[in-house]
Design goal:
With about 220 residues, the protein is mainly beta. About 10% of the residues lie in helices and about 55% in strands. It has an 18-stranded antiparallel β-sheet that branches. The protein is elongated and about 60 Å long. About 30% of the residues are buried.
């Protein structure tokens, strides 16, 4: 009888140890899912895309409260998922593309006739998305987030280069969106027609994985 009891205890202990060692993702909900909150986990390696939210614009204004600068009505980002742990947690992505359609861009800066192009430099960036929706974008080590704006002016073409150490945004499951508000860039080169600071605001939605809207858990 004692031998059976000891064997039973040993078996139970082994089963508990195996259960503890099992990955939580077997039954948990991942930070990023499709099919709504608590849905199917987004696979590592999947590509996420998002255009500007319908009816909105991406703006780079010269001040946080002003309306002078550059406005674009067509923009999109692309990111590859590099980590998607169980919630609560933080998913990670590699931002491989962030484009602006220059034909959709205009400027109301005095002396500027139009926008020739906007380029996001130094890609890829690293993005992290926490379960509370907090989004952080960082450049590679030793690099910086950089945007180059080319403008047509009365004096010819000029190039304005802006940099930021990081970007902070917010994800919202209501419309599968991510939003950036007044993210400050500083001019590092360009003529006097280039404003000294650029404040970036944009809302991208829906964030999708192969056409399926992405939620944050």
């Amino acid at each position: 009888m004692r031998t059976r009891t000891l064997l039973a205890l040993a078996t139970t202990a082994t089963a508990l140890a195996l259960t503890a060692a099992a990955p939580a993702s077997a039954d948990g909900t991942a930070v990023l899912t499709t099919g709504g909150p608590g849905g199917t986990a987004v696979a590592v390696g999947d590509t996420l895309t998002a255009p500007l939210a319908s009816g909105t614009s991406a703006t780079l204004y010269s001040s946080a409260t002003g309306t002078s600068g550059v406005v674009c009505t067509s923009s999109q980002f692309t990111a590859s998922v590099t980590g998607n742990p169980d919630a609560p947690g933080t998913a990670t992505e590699s931002v491989t593309g962030h484009s602006f359609n220059s034909s959709s861009c205009s400027s109301n800066v005095t002396g500027v006739l139009g926008v020739s192009g906007i380029t996001v430099d130094n890609l890829p960036y690293t993005a992290s998305v926490a379960s509370d929706g907090t989004l952080t974008v960082l450049p590679a080590a030793g690099s910086t987030i950089q945007t180059t704006v080319k403008l047509r002016t009365l004096l010819g073409s000029i190039t304005c280069v802006y940099q930021a150490p990081s970007l902070n945004g917010k994800a919202d499951n209501a419309d599968s969106s991510i939003a950036f508000t007044n993210q400050q860039f500083t001019k590092v080169s360009g003529s006097s027609l280039c404003f000294a600071n650029g404040y970036f605001t944009a809302k991208y939605a829906p964030v999708s994985d192969n056409g399926a809207a992405v939620s944050v858990n």
